[in-house]
Amino acid sequence: MQKTLFDKVWDAHVVSQEDDYPAVFYIDAHFIHEVTSPQAFDGLRKRGLSVFRPSRTWATTDHNVPTVDQHLPIKELLSRKQVERLSENCKKFGVELFGLGHPWQGIVHVIGPELGVTKPGMTIVCGDSHTSTHGAFGSIAFGIGTSEVEQVFATQCLLQQKPKTMKIEVNGTLQKEVTAKDIILYIISKISTSGGTGYFVEFSGETISRLSMEARMTICNMSIEMGARGGMIAPDEITFSYMKGRRYMPQGNDWGKAVSYWNTLPSDPGATFDRVESFRAEDMEPMITYGTNPGMGIKVSGNIPRTVECESKSDKTQLQKSLVYMGLQEGQKMIGQHVDYVFFGSCTNSRIEDFRAAAKILKGRKKASDVEAILVPGSTQVFAQAKKEGLDKIFENAGFELRSAGCSACLGMNEDKIPAGKYCVSTSNRNFEGRQGPGARTMLVSPLTAAATAINGYVTNPREFL
């Protein structure tokens, strides 16, 4: 029987399965952070339980931590309590923690791959929806709730219903200013934020196979924004080259054995998916969102849709409501729209490749004087690498404020919020009302579009600088 990549990994992790019941599903790697773990640890205490396999759990601080003066005591009470509690819990239950001040601290979905914890064929969970990022390595990775975090702590397993499978093929050659962020925003704009509901998505095709691992992570990261349970990409030589030599990777002869196994994971020729969607790379341009969900995106050179173009009454109502919140007009061109903030960061676009790309545009240039530009690396290691390559000087000379690693202005949970009514062009993953702060107006873009926009102070096609 021909199997998909998803089926192969799923079948290898089913501990037991009864008809008409969820499978008992084994979890290889469990990532935790300071926000969704405290209640789960408390649940263990109340039941007198330990963490079943602490060596399979990795912790970091990222969501609610400050990104300025991280070497000083945390001022904000909730953040301080969460960070302190995580440290106490990890010490008590024997979980490895990469906390503030640790050289490996960073956003949970950035440090997993860069440390080599993330590997093909694994099952990976975290109390965070963008755990789908790790699927770029050919793993089944998905977000879970706090009660499920406790389940994994106690048993290293979850009860899971097997989702349907979808294949999204992208073939053709991208224009030089089109990035992975544009690919996924384009796809979501076509199938909607609910188009992937009930599915685990495998991204494939010649366009995808040519992408770097950082680019693949961006695509799988935002698979959740189309409603999918997660996304994955088959491992190949690009995957193995990225992984080799990282801290938690197999070494010596074990590396060769692991690669031999990983090479068996790609979907078999003729494997059947429940749904298939196909797209052409030549149809894609730099993208930008204009509304209040990631599916409300258009080519940056395009115009905001008009209500008369809406296919349903609910679409019309949503468009009207979103434009009121965003302070934009139907039919309006996005190029030239004034922005107040530019945010580089989040688990979507805060890796070294993202900063290298933006630096090519920013080198020798200055941001607009009326734009606040913030750069937050995805990890302490990314920041160190950026400094090693001199990228920090390029951003500083362009007028950017460089901060320490964390989720920052992606989610408005910490001190880094966008003020009400202000426009922020962001390399993050969500643009819901209030996502970056109460009343904040978010437009999602690629690092290239963000860099170009920072220079001009208004929405700009990066082609202008390439």
Automatic annotation (TrEMBL):
<feature type="domain" description="Aconitase/3-isopropylmalate dehydratase large subunit alpha/beta/alpha">
    <location>
        <begin position="7"/>
        <end position="457"/>
    </location>
</feature>
<feature type="binding site">
    <location>
        <position position="407"/>
    </location>
    <ligand>
        <name>[4Fe-4S] cluster</name>
    </ligand>
</feature>
<keyword id="KW-0028">Amino-acid biosynthesis</keyword>
<dbReference type="GO" id="GO:0009098">
    <property type="term" value="P:L-leucine biosynthetic process"/>
</dbReference>
<dbReference type="InterPro" id="IPR036008">
    <property type="entry name" value="Aconitase_4Fe-4S_dom"/>
</dbReference>
<keyword id="KW-0479">Metal-binding</keyword>
<dbReference type="InterPro" id="IPR033941">
    <property type="entry name" value="IPMI_cat"/>
</dbReference>
<dbReference type="InterPro" id="IPR018136">
    <property type="entry name" value="Aconitase_4Fe-4S_BS"/>
</dbReference>
<keyword id="KW-0456">Lyase</keyword>
<keyword id="KW-0432">Leucine biosynthesis</keyword>
<keyword id="KW-0100">Branched-chain amino acid biosynthesis</keyword>
<dbReference type="InterPro" id="IPR001030">
    <property type="entry name" value="Acoase/IPM_deHydtase_lsu_aba"/>
</dbReference>
<dbReference type="InterPro" id="IPR004430">
    <property type="entry name" value="3-IsopropMal_deHydase_lsu"/>
</dbReference>
<comment type="pathway">
    <text>Amino-acid biosynthesis; L-leucine biosynthesis; L-leucine from 3-methyl-2-oxobutanoate: step 2/4.</text>
</comment>
<protein>
    <recommendedName>
        <fullName>3-isopropylmalate dehydratase large subunit</fullName>
        <ecNumber>4.2.1.33</ecNumber>
    </recommendedName>
</protein>
<comment type="function">
    <text>Catalyzes the isomerization between 2-isopropylmalate and 3-isopropylmalate, via the formation of 2-isopropylmaleate.</text>
</comment>
<comment type="similarity">
    <text>Belongs to the aconitase/IPM isomerase family. LeuC type 1 subfamily.</text>
</comment>
<dbReference type="InterPro" id="IPR015931">
    <property type="entry name" value="Acnase/IPM_dHydase_lsu_aba_1/3"/>
</dbReference>
<feature type="binding site">
    <location>
        <position position="347"/>
    </location>
    <ligand>
        <name>[4Fe-4S] cluster</name>
    </ligand>
</feature>
<keyword id="KW-0004">4Fe-4S</keyword>
<dbReference type="GO" id="GO:0003861">
    <property type="term" value="F:3-isopropylmalate dehydratase activity"/>
</dbReference>
<keyword id="KW-0411">Iron-sulfur</keyword>
<dbReference type="GO" id="GO:0046872">
    <property type="term" value="F:metal ion binding"/>
</dbReference>
<comment type="subunit">
    <text>Heterodimer of LeuC and LeuD.</text>
</comment>
<dbReference type="Pfam" id="PF00330">
    <property type="entry name" value="Aconitase"/>
</dbReference>
<feature type="binding site">
    <location>
        <position position="410"/>
    </location>
    <ligand>
        <name>[4Fe-4S] cluster</name>
    </ligand>
</feature>
<dbReference type="GO" id="GO:0051539">
    <property type="term" value="F:4 iron, 4 sulfur cluster binding"/>
</dbReference>
<dbReference type="InterPro" id="IPR050067">
    <property type="entry name" value="IPM_dehydratase_rel_enz"/>
</dbReference>
<keyword id="KW-0408">Iron</keyword>
